[in-house]
Amino acid sequence: MNTVVVEESPVPSAAAKGTGGPRGVAALARFEARRLLTSAPVVFSFAVYILWTVWRTRSSWDGFPALQDADRATQGGPLLVGLGVLLAADFAALRDRRRGTQEWFGTLVLPAGRRTAAHLLALLPVVLLTAVCVAAQFTWEALKPGAVGHGSPAELLVGPLTVLLLGAAGVLLARLAASVWAAPLLGVLYLFFLVLGTGPSGDTGGTAWLYPVVSTSGNSPFPSDLLGRPAAWHALYLAGVALCLAFLAVLVAARGRGVSARAGLAVALAMALTGGVAQSRGDSAELLAARERASAAPEKEQRCVTRDGSTYCAFDEWVPRADDWAGVVGRVRSLAGDPARDRPLLVRQRIEARYGLDSDSAIPASTRRHQVTVGTAWGGNRVPEFSAAVAGVLVAGSEAAAAELCDGRMVTVMWLAVGWEDDPMGTLRRVRLDDSVEGAAVVLAPTDPLSMTAGQTDVVRRLLEKDRDGVAAKARAHWDELTSPGVTTARAAELLGVPGPEKADSCEE
Amino acid sequence: MTITVSASGLSLHYGRTRALDEVGLRLSPGVTGLLGPNGAGKTTLLRVLATAVPADRGAFTVLGHDPGTVRGRQEVRRRLGYLPQTPGFHPDFTAFAFVDYVAVLKELTDRRARHREVRRVLEEVGLGDVRGRRIKKLSGGMRQRVALAAALVGDPGFLVLDEPTVGLDPEQRMRFRELIAGAGEGRTVLLSTHQTEDVAMLCRRVLVMAAGSVRFDGTPAELTARAAGRVWRSDRRDAGAKAGWRTGTGEFRQVGDPPEGAELVEPTLEDGYLLVLDGAVDAEVAA
After folding, report:
1. Chain B contacts of A20, Cβ < 8 Å?
2. Which parts of the sequence are annotated with region: Disordered (chain A) (predicted)?
3. Which of chain B's residues have a Cβ under 8 Å away from the Cβ of A99?
4. Mean pLDDT for all residues in chain B
């Protein structure tokens, strides 16, 4: 076998004029990025994601978001984008195989490993766009006048990193499975997983953090320092896993060749392992102690401010919300008679953090006189619930006593609680557990609920249909009797100028 | 004569099938035709020269670069334009995007210069006006021209064309001949075809392959000359004819061993090709 030495071509080709290497990868990445951004799965998933985000964020948290929860709310939408990117990235990486150009284009300059690297780099604009959407969603929440708290950059990174991870998975899948059905099949399984909502929550153990997005099911926001979510470690873990998949894809395409890819895989693996181990350590003893303190003795952790003679004590992040609470207290007191009308109250923010973020444990009613509990959520139904608690304390003296009310005082409590609202009947309906304005029902409150009998409901409904100022004048005039233990519902109705119930209420019998 | 592509001892087996058997060749600038029956090994040879598949044995160089090494293979690919027998297409790409994609894979990294080059080759193949049209909306002939543009992009020094005119109507074939003739100016073109007219009209040299080896290597005139004195006409089919058919005038045109006193006619390149394949004339192969 011999090789004939020949002369160089007299016409050097343009392709031979010193291009290539990283610049070739960058050029292909730009080309693929444009196609990826305009591919049907990505456009569709982004459209749905943006529409859903806009629709949801308009009314999320009733306009009073706690930003340490709002950051986590940015993580769900990118799961859908990730699915679109997974499909589109897989299809793009399989394009030459699907269209029978693999051998032809295999004779072109850019080697398979670099083409795969370009497909992976092409994910970056989509990831960046997701990051912009996440930032916009969070900024929208943060700019709401009722926003409190602090978001976590690491939590905000989860969405974009999830898109990167799923995109890299799509490219790797294309390198491992030649079938065009592999990615759609994976997508169906993924959708099944999403729709069924079988995603993990943070309190199901350390393994839950192996998933990209770890949700929480509790409804009450925690102070930022009590969250205990290993968000930064999780972001490191996600970045490590995404890079592992990416470097694996490059190595598979390059048939194991490439020192830098192998080194990159080692670093990515180290990142994933470090993040994975660190995020799975569970709640620290310090955190558990802090949650215990915040739950059992919040007064030691809180800051207090005074508004109109009443004191409002809250965890630092919620102190700016004192004005909203004071507004409700002032409106309820404006309908009450003396001495309740001017009685200073202590509004104390209370949480139950001992059972973790996923717990919806009830907060027991306070037995302290003239102390009202307020939660960490606000807006929507939380307002009339707090209003009911304020009214209960003004009438019965304490939350515990209000929870035990079963006489005509309940009429006064509920009229005070909802009477100041613009739509008192609608508010009455919402604050009752059965969403009705007839019959007996439980009335929600920040702590133990109150109870209304059918007769009390009838009387309150009649009161709400009458002129508010007229009823308020009668309430003030008969305040002592209306708030006396043992006053019947019929008597309360009589004092307030509306017909009483046809028969005695069950709890008065 | 400058030798730009040279191969020696190229062999390739698919299982027990010997697709290439000690093939050697030397190419120089201009269009070289590659003729041969189906299964002769033409496409395999082109795939090997285009670095699509490696040969089991033998070596070759393209424009001074040895594709036996990773670096050499890259250098060959930088200088190569390849149009396979059945090029696939990405139907959702526009003609421009498809050629641009190929240009990117050829590592033409400067976007502005690359786009200029893509527009140039699309103009060259007569598709400048439809460059924004999706490939799935183009006719078969237009698609073939897109593939040729993809092969031409980057101004490769060595162009490998595997039956580019198959399936085209006569007008499209003529248009393609024009394109290939233009492409052969200043670069080395290896054109595999079943169309002997293409070779006669386009090529400075012709190779004839059969059973994995090169049976003839010479000019078209030399191939035609192989049939000199071996083509005749008569009123009937003669026993010595390797091939013969009745023409429009009612006479038989025959190729082979003419009888005594036969009326000889001017041979064509196709006559020479038939006789080379038949082994009736001595093969003349480059060492």
Report:
1. 74, 78, 107, 109
2. 1-21
3. 88-91
4. 90
pLDDT at A100: 84
Taking contacts as CB-CB distances below 8 angstroms, the residues of chain A near B66 are 3
Min distance B122 CA to chain A CA atoms (Å): 16
Query: Is the same domain home to A322 and A449?
Result: yes
Q: Would residue A462 count as lying in a domain?
A: yes
* Shared-domain flag, residues A322 and A447: yes
Coil, strand or helix at A442: strand
Q: Considering only alpha carbons, which residue of chain A is nearest residue B25?
A: A4
Nearest CB to A15 within list B9, B61, B107: B107
Cα distance between residue B30 and residue A10, in whole Å: 12
Mean pLDDT in chain A? 88
Q: Looking at the structure, tell me whether residues A296 and A265 fall in a common domain.
A: no
**Strands B213-218 vs B231-234: parallel, antiparallel or unpaired:** unpaired
CB contact under 8 A, B64 and A6: yes
By the 8 A CB rule, do B183 and B152 touch? Answer: yes
Distance CA B96, CA B118 (A): 7
Contacts of B155 in chain A (CB under 8 A): 11, 13-15
Rounded distance between C-alpha atoms, residue A390 and residue A395, angstroms? 9
HSE at residue A469, side-chain half, CA atoms within 13 A, is: 0
Q: Which domain holds residue A367?
A: 292-508
| Number of domains forming the structure of chain A | 2
pTM of the model: 0.86
Burial class (CB in 10 A: 0-12, 13-18, 19+), B245: exposed
Residue A195: predicted pLDDT: 63
> Is cis: bond before A212, omega within 30 of 0?
no
User: A290-345 pLDDT, tens per residue?
Assistant: 999 999 899 888 999 999 999 999 999 999 999 999 999 999 999 998 888 888 99
Long-range interactions of B164-173: CB distance < 8 A, separation 24+: B164/B83, B164/B191, B164/B193, B165/B193, B165/B195, B165/B198, B166/B85, B166/B193, B166/B194, B167/B140, B168/B140, B168/B141, B168/B144, B169/B141, B172/B141, B172/B144, B173/B198
Same domain, A264 and A340: no
List the one residue out of A338, A346, A395, A404 whose CA is nearest residue A371. A346
Q: Considering the domain boundaries, does residue A1 fall inside one? A: no
Q: Is the CB of B154 inside 8 Å of chain A's CB atoms? A: yes
Nearest CA in chain B to A12: B157
Whether A332 and A251 map to the same domain: the answer is no
CA distance A165 to A169: 6
Candidate from A15, A106, A107 with C-beta closest to B108: A15
Domains and CATH numbers, chain B: 1-79+156-219+282-287 (3.40.50.300), 87-154 (no CATH), 224-278 (no CATH)
Q: Determine whether the interchain pair A15/B155 forms a contact, defined as Cβ–Cβ distance below 8 Å.
A: yes
Amino acid at residue number B21: D
Task: Give the DSSP letter string of A254-318.
Answer: TTT--HHHHHHHHHHHHHHHHHHHHHTS---HHHHHHHHHHHH-GGGT-EEEEETTEEEEE-GGG
**Alpha carbon of A103: minimum distance to chain B alpha carbons (Å):** 6
Q: How many residues are there in chain A? A: 509
List, in sequence order, the alpha helices (H) in B139-282: 140-152, 170-183, 196-202, 220-225, 269-278
Distance CA A379, CA A332 (A): 17
> Which residue, chain included where needed, has tokens 């069924």?
A196
Nearest CA in chain B to A10: B186
Q: Which residue of B has its CA nearest to A24?
A: B107
Per-residue model confidence as pLDDT tens digits over A143-201: 999 999 999 999 999 999 999 999 999 999 999 988 888 888 888 887 777 666 555 55
B9, B63, B107 member nearest A20 (Cβ): B107
Phi, psi angle pair for B95, to nearest 5°? -55, -40
